[in-house]
Specification:
Oligomer: single chain
Number of domains: 4
Radius of gyration: 34 Å
Number of helices: 7
Strand order of the largest sheet: 14-13-12-15-16-17
Helix content: 25-40%
CATH topology of the largest domain: Rossmann fold
Structural class: alpha+beta
Largest sheet: 6 strands, mixed
CATH architecture of the largest domain: 3-Layer(aba) Sandwich
Length: 419
């Protein structure tokens, strides 16, 4: 019962009380219209609504305004007064318009509610609409919840990946931009071999045939597609700040899309608070899966995933390329060497914890600058030690501190990246 009907009931009861106390029928006469209004009031009309939700664009960039569109259709009787309110998820900021609508809706009519939000990287769920149907004259109302689910994935900020020439032990029978070169269709000379029935006549090497007295064919070098697996380290203990983790998410997505653009199959794994696995695939749908997985990445701790010892590397196809994006704790090197010994081509993108991820003011006090310089030197020694161990194991290393563009990175170490 709303406030108006409550006030009317209170006045009617008060008038009846005065009538009983004073034995005056005029008080009962005054209470009669109010009592009739309360007793004869019909219920608020039952609402039969159908709601649809859409986002424009469907996969926005980080910080890009997203328009949320709600389309409602009245499948029942006319609604004299209807209120509709959509709940903006936590973390999203209203940029334009209003998620609230109030008015009348005729039978069979449609309406559209539109507003814009800005979202950081992440997954944002919309549950439904809080609706209230009212009869203004009778002051009756009925509140109900209208399900209208929607899920908005906001991937990390786009980055240009470095141009890597990386092969793998195993290649696919399709051409691709990966750095893995095998004899096949191509323009570069690879070698020669004896002629076999079925070989193209235009591939015959007439000079070698005249010299050796037998038919020789030319082989050309073709670049083959590979299977690439990206592992994003989501362990909270490995990162110094949330901004460092955001940079890691953006770098992992950029590298995954780099291999995907080269017609390679790409798998993606989040390892830390949980274990999330996107099976290797290619094409537009795989790109959407990779972006959704990077959008859902969160920092956390789990007893089973404190170290890379429990990393299910067997999920990646044998002989494929495995690329780890992580700050790389010292105890992680053993797991990387184990992956390399299992026949995988291993590459690590190390996030420098002393990089300028937080946008600090360059005008720092002298004491803080001295401490940072000492920490930088210690980190350089640690980096040289890590590089030496990785290089001896045949593992490539990309070190990134966030102050330089990702595309400018170059391979460090003597990794055996091309079989």
């Amino acid at each position: 019962m709303n406030k108006l009907r409550g006030a009317a009931g209170f006045l009617a009861a008060t008038a009846c009380a005065f009538g009983i106390a004073s034995a005056d029928g005029r008080y009962f006469a005054a209470a009669l219209p109010l009592a009739a209004w309360l007793l004869l009031a019909p219920r608020a009309p039952e609402a039969k609504l159908k709601a649809e939700r859409s986002f424009d664009p469907g996969q926005p960039k980080k910080g890009e305004p997203v328009r949320v569109r709600l389309r409602l259709r009245n499948l029942g009787q006319a609604l004299p007064l209807l209120s509709v309110a959509d709940a903006v998820p936590a973390g999203a900021v209203l940029a334009e318009g209003s998620p609230f609508w109030r008015g009348s809706l005729e039978a069979g009519a449609e309406l559209e509610v539109s507003y814009m939000v800005r979202c950081p990287r992440g997954m944002f769920g919309f549950a439904g609409l809080s609706c209230v149907s009212e009869q203004p004259f009778w002051a009756s109302r009925a509140a109900f919840f209208l399900p209208c689910p929607g899920r908005l994935a906001v991937p990390p900020a786009r980055m240009k990946a470095p141009s890597l020439t990386i092969g793998a032990q195993a290649v696919r029978p399709f051409s691709g931009l990966s750095g893995a070169r095998r004899a096949g269709e191509g323009a570069e000379f690879f070698g020669t071999r004896d002629y076999y029935p079925g070989d193209r006549l235009r591939s015959l090497n007439w000079r070698a045939g005249a010299l050796w007295g037998q038919n020789i064919v030319n082989l050309f070098e073709g670049e083959r597609a590979i299977d690439a697996g990206i592992i994003l380290d989501c362990r909270a203990e490995a990162y110094n700040s949330a901004d460092q983790f955001e940079a890691g998410c953006a770098a992992a997505l950029a590298l995954a899309e780099f291999f995907l653009d080269g017609a390679n199959r790409v798998g993606f794994m989040r390892y830390g608070a949980e274990l999330d696995w996107v099976a290797p695939g290619a094409g537009r749908e795989q790109r959407h899966k990779l972006r959704r997985s990077c959008a859902a990445a969160t920092l956390g701790d789990h007893a089973a995933f404190e170290r890379f010892d429990h990393l299910p590397v067997s999920l990646f196809p044998p002989g494929s390329l495995v690329l780890l994006v992580s700050p790389l704790l010292r105890e992680d090197l053993r797991a990387l060497r184990a992956m390399r010994a299992s026949g995988y081509t291993v590459l690590a993108l190390r996030l420098d914890p002393l990089g300028d991820f937080s946008g600090l003011n360059p005008a720092t006090p002298s004491e803080a600058a001295m401490e940072q310089d000492i920490a930088r030197r210690i980190m350089e020694l640690e980096d040289a030690f890590t590089l030496a161990r990785l290089s001896r194991a045949g593992i490539g290393l990309l070190a990134w501190d966030g102050t330089k563009p990702l595309w400018s990175l170059r391979m460090r170490g003597r990794a055996e990246l091309r079989p």
